[in-house]
Each structure stands twice: as structure tokens, then as C-alpha cells.
Amino acid sequence: DAGVTQSPTHLIKTRGQHVTLRCSPISGHKSVSWYQQVLGQGPQFIFQYYEKEERGRGNFPDRFSARQFPNYSSELNVNALLLGDSALYLCASSLETVQETQYFGPGTRLLVL
Amino acid sequence: SQQGEEDPQALSIQEGENATMNCSYKTSINNLQWYRQNSGRGLVHLILIRSNEREKHSGRLRVTLDTSKKSSSLLITASRAADTASYFCATGGIQGAQKLVFGQGTRLTINP
User: Do residue B31 and residue A99 have CB atoms under 8 angstroms apart?
Assistant: First the structure.
């Protein structure tokens, strides 16, 4: 079975632009979470979706939004990009909740110039 | 802010030696998970230990959890060069919140 996939792998944007990152969970997994990892830090929780509903939101501004589709794939959108949004964006899937093993994708590395 | 705090921040040992990394956290948890990350790539799950468990093993890995001290340790025995990576602890199910809270990680280097 394929693991969690994310696209694109790398992305370069300029300040003020908008970006959409995509994630496909492991088949059968209904929960998708998004994390931001700045260089040298641990991942920071952004969102968790389960059955297309937002179940958790981290301490990120409203410029960050996400959604989950009927096939359980997910998109993370970031508007009005800032230099500080440069990071590795990780998607994780699990069967239902974070009380289970989270399976991470390879991440999307975003550079904002 | 980070929930878990790993100690040490960096560890360098010789191949074949054992490596021990520690994690402390601040609030009640449902479970604690350890992950490995190679060179800024995706995280690989190592072990999940629940709050009612004290010790778990997986191959060369041993994890302990002391909820009274709010701490956990990860022991890697007979280290190999391929174990070189960053290791993160993450706490889950805090007060019903559906998120993992990660520490800043321990950078482990295994010298041949």
C-alpha cells in the first residue's frame, strides 16, 4: 500500500502570494493532520480533519485554512505569504484520532522570498 | 509553545554504543509517541506508549514512561550509522485535543 503522499515536494513563492499544498492519506485512513516545521524546530500542529470536519486548530493566523474532501484527501491553503511561512509542511494520517500512530508524508518544502 | 522538551539537544556516540534520549512534558497525556526524522524529510513513527503503560520494546528500541515525573526515555541499543537522525517525542490526546505536540528534538550522530 502507498504511504501518505504530498504534493508538490518543493515550492518557491514570493511574499503576498497564495499557496495550496495537497495530501493524500493512506487508504482507509479518515484523519488528516497538518504540521509546520521550521528549520531546527519540532513540528507545530496546524489543523486536524476527520470525516471532512475540522477537529482541531493550532495557533496559526486566519491566513491558514484547510479542507478535507470526500475521498479523505486534504488541502492546506496559505494566503498572503510571509517570509516566516518558509518551512517544511507535513501531513499525517491515521485511522481516526491522534491517539493512534500517525503516518507522515515526506512533506512539502516551501520557500517564501 | 512546545509541550515536550528533549534532552540532550544533540548526542554523538560511537557505533555499537547505546543512545539514550529523554523527553519531559508538562500536562496530562493520553499517549506519547517517538518519531525519527532523517535530514529534514518526513517523520517515521517508532513507538507509541499509552499513559497506562510503563515500558515498551521494539527491536533495538526501548521506551519508558513515568507519568508521575512527566517524562519518557528512548533507548537505542547497539547503535548503527543508519540511526543517525533527529528524534522527536510527541504527546497526544492532551485534554481531548486532537493534535500531537512535539518537542524540539534530539540530534543523534553515530560515528563509525
Answer: yes
